[in-house]
Specification:
InterPro entries: Na/ntran_symport, SNS_sf, YocR/YhdH-like. By secondary structure, the chain is mainly alpha-helical. It has 20 helices and no strands. 74% of the residues lie in helices and 0% in strands.
């Protein structure tokens, strides 16, 4: 009579990897750095300052921190404990926990939605990563031309600097090439595996990122309007804490931690049983929040010194900052280092985005890591081409214009909307419901690393507060008119 261990690889793949066959982190610190790298990305460096600027500064920041503690951290811990218990990719970790809890195996849909979300986000995230590479090249060339001492782009007027991004958007071939280059760097590290690739990125690039962001923040404090930036970010005005601001802060807390994409489930599956998940999750959430705040303190002193508007929104990083660096001492060098720093943050996140579907594809079809990651990167590149060309050649082409949520959206915006407003919130809601109501309490208790009142508080948050708050994100994303949008 055949046993489970006698089954062929493709037969076992439906249940995930065998016990003890899964890769793992070499240490607790490696996991923490990798998880921080997964969470810290363009959401911190680009979206947080833009959202803070557009939503009144201090009121937004305060409520954002509250949301990280009450919603972001519980969901982060929930995803991580699912992965550690399941010791497999997102879908198979959820499946294993469901079966160990005598629940339906259909709950693996939570992980499957995360896998799809990660793949789709990767496809357009690398396009934005290509923009970062473009600005690294622009500032490197300017540094060679003007030297270290003066401001950036000497001899060029503001109008010329402001055309840098539109010129990139108008060059479809360059956009695709930069997308492919950034995706290629991501593939290189994921194909090398957990210890030789992903862990290398975490243990070397993340410390370099932290050194750069602290150094540039100090630079802004010395040469820029640091006191003004502090007042802007941390002065709480109750009148500015409106419904739309609170929902924006809640959304930022959710997206900043990269929840709903099975990333923390996948990374959690590589964690050994002796690691306290509650403590490490708190470190990860704190570091991610700290980076977001540092990004504000890094960017706003420079913006205020140049007399630019903090409400510039998404163009703050790619158009306002290059203008600001023109007025700053050593502007070319600081601009070059700034975009290197942003590139590091983007790379650590894109590595996590590719690892999520790679881990699943390896387990589902018994593929080697190299083959699985190359196949996924090729698919992401094809979608990335559509996203890149939606700014130029395919501008005005709206694939799903017959659906109100996607009307008049090109490929880039469509993929962004599909993931951020639908798939990710749905996956996060289901994660909270699964851990709070479906998974056996004995399993959650054993994995979470919480005791007494803290454990009871966590259970209340994950059962009630998180699902309700995440449902608000989902509903406002689908029906923006609910907040007057």
């Amino acid at each position: 009579m055949a046993t489970a261990t006698d089954a062929k690889p493709h037969e076992r793949s439906h249940e995930g990897p065998e016990e003890g066959s899964h890769e793992g982190w070499s240490s607790r610190s490696a996991f923490i750095l990798a998880a921080i790298g997964s969470a810290v990305g363009l959401g911190n460096m680009w979206r947080f300052p833009a959202e803070a600027g557009a939503n009144g500064g201090g009121a937004f920041v305060l409520f954002y921190i509250v949301c990280v503690i009450l919603i972001g951290l519980p969901v982060l811990l929930s995803e991580t404990l699912i992965g550690r218990h399941g010791q497999a990719s997102g879908p198979y970790s959820v499946l294993r926990m469901a079966r160990d809890s005598s629940a339906s195996g259909n709950w693996q849909i939570v992980g499957l939605i995360g896998v799809v979300s990660s793949f789709l986000v990767l496809s357009f995230y690398c396009v934005v990563g290509g923009w970062v590479l473009y600005y690294i090249g622009i500032f490197a060339a300017d540094l060679v031309h003007t030297g270290v001492a003066g401001g950036a782009f000497q001899g060029r007027g503001p109008a010329t600097i402001e055309t840098l991004l539109p010129e990139l958007f108008g060059n479809g071939l360059l956009m695709v090439a930069l997308d492919a280059l950034f995706l290629g760097a991501t593939l290189f590290f994921v194909a090398r595996g957990v210890s030789k690739g992903i862990e290398f990125v975490a243990t070397w690039i993340m410390p370099a990122f932290f050194v750069l962001i602290v150094a540039i923040t100090i630079y802004g404090a010395v040469t820029g309007a640091f006191i003004e930036a502090l007042a802007y970010l941390f002065t709480f005005e109750p009148s500015k804490l409106t419904g739309p601001v609170m929902l924006a802060a809640l959304g930022q807390a959710f997206f900043s931690l990269s929840l709903g994409m099975a990333g923390m489930i996948t990374y959690g599956s590589y964690v050994s049983k002796d690691v306290n998940l509650a403590g490490t999750s708190t470190i990860i959430a704190s570091a991610d929040t700290g980076v977001a705040l540092l990004a504000g303190l890094c960017i706003f002193p420079i913006v205020f010194t140049a007399g630019l508007a903090p409400e510039a929104g998404p163009t703050l990083m790619f158009q306002s900052l290059p203008l600001a660096f023109q007025t700053m001492p050593a502007g070319s060098l600081v601009g070059f280092l700034f975009f290197i720093m942003v590139g590091f943050a983007a790379l650590t996140s894109s590595v996590a985005l590719l690892e999520v579907p790679t881990a699943w594809l390896m387990e589902r079809f018994g593929l080697r890591r190299t083959i699985a990651s190359v196949m996924l990167a090729a698919g992401a590149l094809l979608l990335g081409v559509l996203s890149a060309l939606s700014f130029n050649t395919l501008a005005g082409s709206y694939p799903l214009t017959f659906l109100p949520l996607f009307s008049e959206q090109g490929w880039f915006d469509l993929l962004d909307t599909l993931t951020s407003k639908l798939l990710m919130p749905i996956a996060a809601i289901l994660t909270a419901v699964f851990v709070g109501w479906i998974a056996a309490p004995r399993i959650v208790d054993a994995e979470a690393g919480l005791t007494g009142g803290l454990y009871r508080f966590y259970r209340v948050l994950v059962r009630w507060v998180c699902p309700l708050a995440l449902t608000a994100i989902l509903l406002v994303g689908i029906f923006p008119s609910l907040i007057g949008g």
